[in-house]
User: What shape does this take?
Amino acid sequence: MNSMTVTSPEETMQLGEQIGQLVQPGDLILLDGDLGAGKTTFTKGLAKSLGIPNNVKSPTFTLIREYHQGRLPLYHMDVYRLEDGGAEDLGLDEYFDGDGVSVVEWSEFIADLLPTTYLRIALERNGATDDGRTITLTPHGARYDQLVSQLKG
Assistant: This one.
């Protein structure tokens, strides 16, 4: 497990940018954290490093937003509204096995539909400042072990 502390939304975005430089087609990133923890801020940084010019917004009401303008397609999912089910009908595996990178917020609501390999990123307020966060990266699988080890350099 790899944890770091950030003190501003800009630092959260920078981590997203660093990871965005390393992602490959078919990568899956799960973002866990309360409302306002920085999940969409992280995704904005990732999108920026992929060269996606759009203003990335939380897909709370659309469930999935697709961005195809960058180095790789970005599939940004917010599955919070699937707490009571319905995810089976979305064809998520087509995204997860696809040509882009999938970022899933609130992944605990689709836990039974997730593949076995992914990078889980937990964002937690640490109380030091309003903008302070502890970000924990937990890789599942060799691909994500490698990605996280590249970040340390």
In short: The chain has a mean pLDDT of 88. Strands lie at 2-6, 28-32, 64-67, 74-78, 101-105, 118-125, 133-140. The first strand starts at residue 2 and ends at 6. Helices lie at 9-20, 39-50, 92-96, 142-151.
